[in-house]
Every structure is written in C-alpha cells, then in structure tokens.
Amino acid sequence: MSQQRSASADVQPAGGSALVTEQGRTSIADSVVLKIAGVASREVNGVHAMGSGGARAFGAIRDKMPGSGGQSPSQGVTVEVGERQAAIDIDLVVEYGVSIPDVSQAVRRNVIQRVERMTGLEVTEVNLSVDDVYLGGDDEEEEPEPARVQ
Amino acid sequence: MPVDPDAVSAAALSCPEVAGLSGGLVGEVATYLPGRSVAGVRITDDEVEIHIVARWCANLPEVADAVRRAVKPVTGGLRVSVYVEDIEVPDEPGQSDVLAEQGAGSGARP
Question: What is the per-residue pLDDT across A87-139, written as a single tens digit (0 to 9) for each?
Fold first, then answer.
C-alpha cells in the first residue's frame, strides 16, 4: 500500500503535530478533504470529469435542476480521515490522447500537495481509478434545437 | 456559567478565515440556552468545542490556531478544540491557485 506514496517524495509531509496541540485538538471533517481533493484533481490538465458511471449520470441529472449550484466539487472522491492522516480514493475520466500514467502521477502529486498544505494531514495514499476516456463531442455540447416557429 | 458562548461565537467569527460556524447536520452542535441556542459552540466542563466552516485558504491548522488565539480571552483557560466541518470552495478552479499562493493569514477573500 505504501508504494503509492513514492510519487510524493518531493512533498514534505506536514506531520500531524500541527493538529494535536496542548491547547486543544484540531479536527478536519471528511467533507473538507473531499472538496480539496476534488478541486485539486480537476486542476490537472487531461482530467475531463470526476466520478464513476453512476455518480456522473446522477450528477448530470442534478446539474439540470435549477438551483443545484452546478457539479459537486467532491464528486468521485472518497476519503478516510483520521486524527493525523488521510487516505484518498479518486474516480476520474481522462481526455482521449493523454498519457494516463502521467496524468495520474500529476493528479496524485497535486492532491497530496494541496491536502497536506491546506489541512496539515499526512496523506498516506491516493488511489486513482480511471473509469473512462472522453472521446469528445458525444455529449454535453448539444446544439439547441432550432425553434419551430419564428 | 463561566464561559459565555456568545462571546466565543463572536470571537471565532472575527477571524477573517472563518466563513461561519457549523451546527452539524441538524444543528445538534450548539450551546442550549433558555429560548435559543448558539450554533457551533459546545462547552463542557473541561473543553470548548468550536465547529467552523473555513474559507478556501492556505493552511487550516493556522486557521485553527487563529481561532484559538481569538477565543482565548473568553474561554477561561479551558482546552479549545477546533473542528473544521466544511470549507468554502472557490467558484473558479483557477482561483484556488491565487489563494493558495498567498501567505497564511492573508487567505481572506478579496
């Protein structure tokens, strides 16, 4: 399990001492790590969308509803957060033509860096699952139908 | 009551990196008072819990330290536990770069 960590050799582990102090404990909720990891994954070029098939289908329906506020930043991310450490699993869709190993390394590095710098938690592992390749043009940018009456 | 929950709430909210206090899923995290409650602050015999929603900023442990410093005068020496329950995500993904580059402590939104 620990070999995933090797990608982040250049990231200084923030350690947990910043979170557990004599004056009291700082506890980071799961949703905080979810959102940071989601935003950090999307920042990387080559990542088209987040989430496994079911989550994306449900997300697409939810996006169409008024007042939904757009895609949830934590879609496709699950985390386990302890007092000092966090483990992160990410489902994503990459664009066609990218090198999946390079993109996953970049995602892993960015997620570890962002989560460790922002929360002070040590990230023990980031597991990526590439669920699909986006070929372009087959959904989303649909042409609106021309009006039938002028 | 030795610790005033309203003072704790006001002191925590005075930190620029704190977007708000979080009462939990159904508002169960609160100090219950006659006729009202103070959301996000729970006071026990030996500890004060503060549940916050943070702004998107560089470093959450530093935010927690800032909250701890801000509430210190009104908590009477009790241990202060800070729970970061949620974080506000910037609208544009690119914006997070700008905010993350800023030094901690200046992470407030423009």
Answer: 999 999 999 999 999 999 999 999 999 999 999 999 999 999 999 999 976 55
Are A24 and B58 an interchain contact pair (Cβ–Cβ within 8 Å)?
no
Report CA torsion sign: A57, A60, A62, A65: negative
ipTM value: 0.70
Q: Which of B9, B36, B4, B34 is nearest to B22 (CA)?
A: B9
Is residue B1's pLDDT more than 80? no
Which has the higher per-residue pLDDT, B104 or B53? B53
Q: Measured between CA atoms, how close is A137 to chain B, in angstroms?
A: 23
Can you state the angle between helices A100-119 and A30-42, rounded to 10 degrees? 140
Domains defined for chain A, CATH in brackets:
26-134 (3.30.70.1350)
Q: Which domains does chain B have, with CATH numbers?
A: 5-92 (3.30.70.1350)
With CA atoms as reference, the chain B residue closest to A26 would be B82
Report the greatest alpha carbon distance in chain B: 47
Beta bridge mates, B36: B33
Q: Where are the alpha helices (DSSP H) in chain B?
A: 5-13, 60-71, 95-101
- Is residue B62 within 8 Å of B104, Cβ to Cβ? yes
